[in-house]
Design goal:
By secondary structure, the protein is of the alpha+beta class. The protein contains 12 helices and 8 strands. Helix content is 56%, strand content 18%.
Length: 376
C-alpha cells in the first residue's frame, strides 16, 4: 500500500510538472521567437535559419524555468492533497511526515539529475547547433533589409544606400564594400534589380561607376551593366562560439587552464576560452555543474507545508510564506551565481551554499516533526 500511495504522489507531481513546463516554455519560446524576427527583417537571414535557431533555444528555456515550475508543481500537489484530505491516507498507512519528506527529496533528486543532464549536455549542444546555422548562412534576403533613404550596414563589410525602392527594383544606389584595411570599393548606379536563383544571389546594376581605392589611390571605371555577387557577404550577426555554447568537457578544461595560469589577462587557449573573460567562464561553470543542486532544497521547502494544517486560521498565509521562501531560494541561487565567480575558492563556496541550506532545513523539519508535532 505504501508503494501505491508513493507512486500516486510521484505521478501527480510529474503530470502537473510536464503540463506546466510545456505550457510556460512554449509561451516564453514564442515571445523570444517574436523578438528574434529582426534576424530576418534586419540581418537578412532566411526563414529556415530563423526557425531552426529559435527552435534550438527551447532546451535553454526549459532549463531556466525548471526550478520555478518544480516549486509550483510540488506546492500545488501537496496543497491539493491537504485540501482533499488525501494526506490522511499516508498517516493511516503508517507513513510519517519525515518519511513523506524523504520521498519528496527522492523525487526532487530525479529532477536535479534531469536538470544536470540539460545543463551539461543538451543545452550547450543545442545552443552551439543554433549558432551553427549562422556560421553556415549567407545573407539571402537583401531585398527585405534594404530600406529607402537609409544606410544599411547589417551586412559585414558592406554599406548600402538606396534613394527609391519598388519591390526588387532600385534607383540611385550607393554601395561601399570594405575589401581590406587599406582597400575599398564604391559603386554608384542609377538603377538596380535583385536577382536570385538556386545558383547565385546578385544585384544587377545599370549606368554607374566603380571607384576602387587602394592605398589612397583611386581608379574609376564607368559601366552600363554590372553584376554584384551578394552570396559572398555575411550578416554582422555574431557567429563566434560563446562560453555558454562550449561543451562541458571543454568548459572544465578551460577552468583548469585559467586556474593554472592564474587569470593571466593575455592568454587565449581555444575559441571561447580566454582569461580576459574568466569571470563569465566561472559563472557558466557554476551554472552548469552546481546551480541544479539548489533545486533539491525546493523539495524541502515544499515539505514545510506538511507542518501547516488547514484547520489553522492562518494556513493560507503560511502557504504563501512558504512559497515565497521557495522563490527566495531561486533568487539566492541566481544572485550568488553572479557574484561568486572570482576564483576556484568562490566556486567551492557556491557549492557549499545549497548543501548548508539543505542541512539546516532538513534539521529544522526533523525538530518540528519529533518535538513540536510529536507525530509519527
Amino acid at each position: 500500500m505504501k508503494k501505491l500511495v508513493y507512486k500516486k504522489l510521484s505521478f501527480d507531481i510529474l503530470k502537473f510538472f510536464l503540463i506546466t513546463i510545456f505550457s510556460i516554455s512554449t509561451i516564453v519560446w514564442i515571445i523570444q521567437a517574436v523578438n528574434f524576427l529582426d534576424l530576418v527583417s534586419e540581418d537578412g537571414h532566411s526563414l529556415k535559419v530563423y526557425f531552426f535557431y529559435t527552435f534550438f533555444l527551447l532546451p535553454k528555456i526549459i532549463s531556466n524555468v525548471l526550478p520555478f515550475i518544480l516549486l509550483i508543481s510540488l506546492f500545488y500537489v501537496l496543497i491539493q492533497y491537504e485540501i482533499k484530505n488525501e494526506l490522511i491516507i499516508y498517516w493511516i498507512n503508517g507513513i510519517t511526515k519525515i518519511n513523506l519528506t524523504n520521498h519528496i527529496i527522492k523525487i526532487t533528486i530525479l529532477f536535479v539529475i534531469f536538470h544536470l543532464i540539460l545543463n551539461l549536455g543538451i543545452v550547450p549542444y543545442s545552443l552551439d547547433k543554433a549558432r551553427s546555422y549562422f556560421r553556415n548562412s549567407n545573407v539571402d534576403l537583401f531585398s527585405a533589409i534594404i530600406k529607402e533613404k537609409k544606410f544599411i550596414d547589417s551586412v559585414e563589410n558592406l554599406t548600402i544606400f538606396v534613394e527609391k525602392k519598388n519591390g526588387n527594383k532600385l534607383e540611385n544606389i550607393f554601395i561601399k564594400e570594405k575589401i581590406s584595411e587599406e582597400n575599398s570599393q564604391i559603386i554608384i548606379a542609377q538603377n538596380g534589380n535583385f536577382e536570385k536563383n538556386e545558383i547565385d544571389n546578385k544585384i544587377i546594376l545599370e549606368n554607374g561607376k566603380i571607384i576602387d581605392t587602394k592605398e589612397d589611390k583611386q581608379n574609376i571605371i564607368d559601366f552600363s551593366k554590372f553584376n554584384l555577387d551578394l552570396s559572398k557577404f555575411q550578416s554582422n550577426t555574431i557567429t563566434n562560439p560563446k562560453t555558454q555554447e562550449m561543451s562541458s568537457i571543454n568548459l572544465f578544461k578551460c577552468i583548469v587552464k585559467i586556474h593554472y595560469f592564474n587569470n593571466n589577462n593575455n592568454k587565449s587557449f581555444f575559441p571561447g576560452c580566454d582569461t580576459k573573460i574568466y569571470k563569465a567562464i566561472y559563472e557558466e561553470f557554476n551554472k552548469r555543474f552546481f546551480s541544479p543542486i539548489f533545486t533539491i532544497n525546493i523539495g524541502l521547502i515544499a515539505s514545510l507545508l506538511l507542518i501547516v494544517n488547514k484547520q489553522n486560521n492562518n494556513y493560507k498565509k503560511k502557504y504563501f510564506f512558504n512559497f515565497c521562501l521557495g522563490v527566495l531560494l531561486i533568487f539566492i541561487a541566481e544572485i550568488t551565481l553572479k557574484h561568486l565567480t572570482n576564483s576556484i575558492t568562490m566556486i567551492g563556496l557556491y557549492l557549499l551554499i545549497p548543501i548548508i541550506l539543505f542541512l539546516l532545513i532538513y534539521s529544522y523539519l526533523q525538530f518540528v516533526y519529533r518535538f513540536k508535532l510529536n507525530f509519527k
